[in-house]
Amino acid sequence: MNRKLLPTILLLFSLLATAAGTAQTSPIQATVDRTTIAPDETVTLTVVVVDDSAQQPRPLLPRLDGLAVVDLDIATDVNLDSAGQIHTRVTYTYLLQPRRAGALTIPPVSVTIDGQTYKTAPIAIQVTEGGGQPAPDTTEPPPGLVLPPAIDSGEVFVEARVEPSAPFVGQQVVYTVRLFQPRQAYRDFQYFPPEFTGFDPLDLPMRQYNVDTADRSYLVTELKTILFPHQPGDITITPGQVALAPDATSAPVALSPEAVTVRVQPLPGNPPPDFSGAVGQYSIKAWFDPPTVEVNRPATLYVAVTGTGNLRALPELNWPELADWTAYNSLTSLTTTTQNDTLTGRRMYERVMVPSRIGEFVLPPVSLVYFDPQTGHYETIRTDSLTIQVEPAVSGVPTSIAALPTATPLPAGVPARPTADVGLSAWAELLGYLFGVVGTAARWLFIGLCGLLPLAAVVVVGGRWLWQNRHLWLTRIQTAFREALAEARRAETAPAPVDGPAEEPLAHPAQTIHPVLAGAMHRSADNYKAVILALNTYLSDLLETPVNGLTRRELALRLLRRGLEESLVSRVVACLEQSELARYGPLADDAGWDLMVEADDLLFELDRATGGQEEERSSS
Predict the structure, then answer these.
(1) How do residues 215-225 score in pLDDT, each as one tens digit?
(2) Which residue, of 418, 484, 582, 588, has the greatest Cβ tally within 10 A?
(3) Of 9-13, 196-200, 282-286, where does mean pLDDT reach its minimum?
(4) Read out DSSP for 400-421?
């Protein structure tokens, strides 16, 4: 190789590594579940923000041209690692509905962390064309609909209304734009909504219905937006625009409704001391899982707030203090829906709690103070007190990889007999480590002989790698050697077989650890992280899409749509959840090996359910 090319090659590798590192360390990512949709379909936009702080950064979704947000789920995961470092992961799942056909673009989504702004790449969405005049609509008009005087003109027109017109701060308001078109003269249109300055907006799905007059039939298109006002005072909503497409006999037309003024009332004075701005109608419930916990082992306090109102802006709860317990605010999640043009849903708070003393504890109620605009009063809701029993830690849990199942359990009453290959697994592991060292060095030598790098560089880099990793390899080799000797001693001292009828020897399974889990174990020495890596890798391949940014609800729905049984999906989600929580909690006695066993079982059960690995397992 020409030595003059070496600096160029090294520079190229450096640039590629830098680019890859930059892409991997970007704190914000945005993905969609599809890029081509029909006018009556929706697209799911998932935005994931990761930050090493407890600030829970909120991404800024720009103004969407031709797309409306009709639903939103938020999942916030705040973890504390063993070094005291906080890690926050926020997942926003937006459900978008098109407002017009053609090529649309989701602009870059941005987030600001420590004064620096990061942006995602724009995403192109193609909305296929609809067909001409709409099909007859059987949807009934809303009850109490008052037809405007302009309907007698027989022309196309648009109106805007707001209800209620004098809300309190934080109370839900519905802004409605109605487009009236004679059915025989229907034209496609584009809707450009107002800015809604001073409000927190959320679009509702578009609705169409028929209205008949004495001599004409109208198709009415309703475009509604839920608004939550931020400050008291008169706020005028500058009208948006409805642009009608041209047809064979008419030029394009732009229509705008009249401006609407909302008179926002301030909240009553003298609120309770614990009031933090919640407005709506809510209920609260708490439970502890498990109700009986071992000392120094994590358990989870769940608190669910359900009701109507701006659950996205719901404040932190009033958590009671509990002596001899350490608490971590680990996760909040949000699920919303709209019923009768009202935003409803549930916000889930999860708090990991670790007891440091044995005994019976009573967890005081968790409370939330909110203002009810229907009654005009402040209300306080509380959970029931919870009784928690803390027991001594159970000893004898597995602490090494030998705890993983290595053979099929014996039926009751069948005597265990030593097999011919006792101890071979540990010796094979020892040889595997030795061959791994030799193989790695051989790969470096092979690369050098092929001319990709000078032989001198191979020796230097390979020797440096071996020296830097000497402690890791020596430790693994020593551990494997000790386990091999221990297995050999157990084989020598094993009792003789019990006399009795001859039985067929029990066959050892050819493969005791799922290959995906084995690969994850090589990538991470942390058992909890290995479980997460293995399940995420498997599920990403199964669903043919990355699952890291999915909320638990979305992951479960996709697995159910894939045809998996609900019980299996629940186990998968629970295993992921327990691994994520345990990874940043106090060190467990079993170091995560129980979850490793559960993950191994789950992967093989997923194989059987999907047919992915069944043939490979049976043949091996």
Answers:
(1) 778 889 999 99
(2) 582
(3) 9-13
(4) SGGGS--SPPPPTTPPP---TT
For 357-396, how does the pLDDT look when each residue is reduced to its tens digit (9 = 90+)? Answer: 999 999 999 999 999 999 999 999 999 999 999 999 875 4
Would you call the peptide bond into 164 cis, given omega within 30 degrees of 0 as the criterion?
A: yes
Q: What is the distance between the alpha carbons of residues 66 and 342, in angstroms, rounded to a whole number? A: 23
**Phi-psi domain of 368 (left: phi exceeds 0; alpha: psi -120 through 50; beta: other):** beta
* 3-class secondary-structure state, position 263: strand
CA gap 501, 499 in Å, rounded: 7
Question: For residue 63, what are the contacts with CB-CB under 8 A and spacing of at least 6?
Answer: 107, 195
Angle between helices 552-561 and 566-583 (to 10 degrees): 150
Please tell me the chain's helix, strand, coil percentages from 3-state DSSP, rounded to the nearest 5: 30, 35, 40
- Partners of 124 in beta bridges: 105
Tell me if 160 sits within 8 A of 233, measured CB to CB: no
Phi-psi domain of 84 (left: phi exceeds 0; alpha: psi -120 through 50; beta: other):
left
Structure-block tokens of residue 175: 């802004």
Q: Could you tell me the pTM of the whole model?
A: 0.52
Distance CA 532, CA 578 (A): 10
Alpha carbons within 13 angstroms on the beta-carbon side of residue 245 total 14
- pLDDT surpassing 60 at residue 291: yes
